[in-house]
Amino acid sequence: MKQTMLHEKYPIFLAEIPKTETTYQTVDALVDYYKTCIASNPKVQFISVFDHYAHTKRIEGPIVEGMTAAVDVIFCFGFAIPSPQMLAVRPRSIGIADMGSKFVISFMEAPMQPANEAMEKWTLALRNA
Question: Which InterPro entries does this UniProt record tie to the protein (predicted)?
Fold first, then answer.
């Protein structure tokens, strides 16, 4: 898993997982996996799954070559609301892209370290799972 900047301003975590290195072989299976991870933490609330690929295809937007599916699993780690501004950085999402021979998993760095640690742990556990 690597940490990088997207468009020089968005701090993201990124994992490229070859399908040969995980037992999960579909985006739906990965969605179910993340939903299970979210449900196992009483301080995290599952919200929805957004099919970004279907949406972009429907509006005839460009899609990177080789991508066959792309979803966002949306959830919230909101342990507290210390200010109204915190709402701008919630909820969280984990993006799952199927690039044929590999999955690309990505999420934006959260302002709360426990959230980053959990999302990284969940994602790293996909290898050889």
Answer: DUF6858
- As a whole number of angstroms, the distance between CA 85 and CA 49 comes to 24
What is the spatial distance between Cα 51 and Cα 125, in angstroms, rounded to a whole number? 23
Q: Which domain holds residue 90?
A: 2-124
For the chain, the domain total comes to 1
In a domain, 20, yes or no: yes
- For residue 129, is it within any domain? no
Structure confidence by residue, pLDDT tens digits, 11-55? 999 999 999 999 999 999 999 999 999 999 999 999 999 999 999
Q: Retrieve residue 53's tokens.
A: 């690929």
The β-bridge relationship of strands 10-18 and 2-6 is antiparallel
Residue 26 lies in a domain: yes
- Nearest CA to 45 out of 37, 53, 57 is that of 37
Percent over 70 (pLDDT), the chain: 99
Give the C-alpha separation, 73 to 89, whole Å: 15
C-alpha 69/C-alpha 14 separation (Å) is 17
pTM for the whole structure: 0.93
